[in-house]
Amino acid sequence: MAQIVLRVRLVSGDHLDVTYEDAGTSDVDNVAEHAIAALADDSGMIRTRHGDRMIVLYGRGVAALEMAPRGAVL
Prior knowledge:
Elements: E1 2-10, E2 15-22, H1 28-40, E3 45-50, E4 53-58, E5 62-68
Antiparallel strand pairs: 1-2, 1-5, 3-4
């Protein structure tokens, strides 16, 4: 299972650090491409984690993504 950390910059200008994982692959690049492809569609969404909370992130509210394979984006 590959896991990436996303810093999500929202349309409002706020940002949020979340983790996204895909049990179907161990390749970080494939996980990143899946997240980007899902959010590229206006009705697209991905399930992420922010601490202990599950967050559903909708593509229409995302302005930009920054990615890191592990750890916080600094």
